[in-house]
């Protein structure tokens, strides 16, 4: 395999590790093409996997959350470090601000999920929309910390836990309702990240879903069990 990035060892390692590693380690140039290359490689592996059939709400929720985490990461890998902080207008949020907000929400909602209120006393939500971490590495560290808390809270659960009661801002939710709330919230923001990244990457953009004019080919792969439509 040929690598366009001088940080060959880091890039090769990142191909088999977390996708975010290449984004963190390859800081020697404005747009690290190896990151985009890894996006394509990861995308190919992702779509080569058929959907895992399950009747478990918890298993499927985790699969959906992991999908949207990866989707946002694949989008962020396609923009330069500077573009993470670009705002389209005075009312818009940058990718970096969106990431900071998601991470803040995750720390609050999923730390001690079953035993404490989801809106922690030390959370300052308004501060999540100003002054994001100054570098891609710091931003992605916050991102990973947030997602680690999500998965650490949900993975031990079983479907028998869905009726248990938790609170968010003092309001009672079943575990199922609390999970559903974030299953809508995080993909909503992932979509914002994708939209911004696609706009900023422009002619460098690599499709994250079914490429244009490839729907029939993709349908055949799904029907043959060679790809997943999620």
Structural key phrases:
53% helix; Four Helix Bundle (Hemerythrin (Met), subunit A); disordered N terminus; mainly alpha; 8 helices; two-stranded antiparallel sheet; 2 strands; 230 residues
SSE arrangement:
Elements lengths: L7 H9 L3 H6 L7 H15 L9 H20 L18 H16 L25 H19 L10 E4 L2 E4 H27 L13 H9 L7
Q: TL;DR of this structure?
A:
By secondary structure, the chain is mainly alpha-helical.
Describe the protein in words:
The two termini are 28 Å apart. The chain has a two-stranded antiparallel ribbon with strand order 1-2. Helix 5 (95-110) packs parallel to helix 6 and helix 5 runs antiparallel to helix 7 (175-201). With 230 residues, the chain is mainly alpha-helical. The chain is built from 8 helices and 2 strands; from the N terminus they run H-H-H-H-H-H-E-E-H-H. The chain has a domain at 54-205: Four Helix Bundle (Hemerythrin (Met), subunit A) (Up-down Bundle). It is flat and about 50 Å long. It has helices spanning 8-16, 20-25, 33-47, 57-76, 95-110, 136-154, 175-201, 215-223, and strands at 165-168, 171-174.
- Under the CATH scheme, the architecture of the domain at 54-205 is Up-down Bundle
Number of strands: 2
Here the CATH topology of the domain at 54-205 equals: Four Helix Bundle (Hemerythrin (Met), subunit A)
**N- to C-terminal separation?**
28 Å
Q: What coarse outline follows from CA principal-axis ratios?
A: flat
Strand order of the largest sheet: 1-2
Rg, nearest Å: 19 Å
Unreliable residue stretches = 1-48
Helix count? 8
The main pleated sheet reads as: 2 strands, antiparallel
> Structural class of the helices, strands and pairings?
mainly alpha
CATH homologous superfamily grouping of the domain at 54-205:
dinb family like domain
* Beta content: under 5%
CATH class of the domain at 54-205: Mainly Alpha
Helix content: 40-55%
């Amino acid at each position: 395999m040929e690598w366009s990035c001088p940080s060959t060892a880091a890039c090769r390692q990142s191909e088999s590790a977390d996708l975010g590693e290449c984004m963190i380690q390859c800081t020697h140039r404005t747009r690290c093409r190896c990151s985009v290359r890894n996006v394509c490689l990861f995308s190919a592996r992702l779509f080569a996997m058929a959907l895992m059939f399950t009747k478990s709400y918890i298993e499927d929720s985790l699969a959906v959350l992991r999908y949207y985490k990866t989707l946002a990461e694949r989008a962020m890998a396609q923009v330069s470090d500077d573009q993470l902080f670009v705002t389209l207008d005075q009312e818009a949020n940058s990718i970096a601000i969106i990431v900071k907000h998601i991470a803040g929400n995750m720390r609050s909602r999923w730390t001690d999920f079953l035993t404490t209120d989801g809106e922690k006393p030390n959370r300052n939500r308004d501060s999540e929309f100003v002054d994001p971490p100054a570098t891609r590495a710091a931003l992605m560290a916050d991102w990973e910390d947030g997602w680690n808390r999500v998965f650490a809270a949900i993975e031990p659960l079983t479907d028998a836990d869905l009726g248990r009661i938790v609170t968010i801002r003092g309001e009672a939710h079943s575990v199922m309702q609390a999970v559903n709330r974030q299953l809508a919230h995080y993909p909503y923001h992932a979509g914002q990240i994708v939209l911004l990244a696609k706009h900023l990457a422009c002619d460098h953009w690599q499709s994250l879903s079914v490429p244009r004019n490839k729907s029939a080919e993709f349908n055949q792969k799904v029907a043959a069990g060679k790809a997943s439509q999620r």
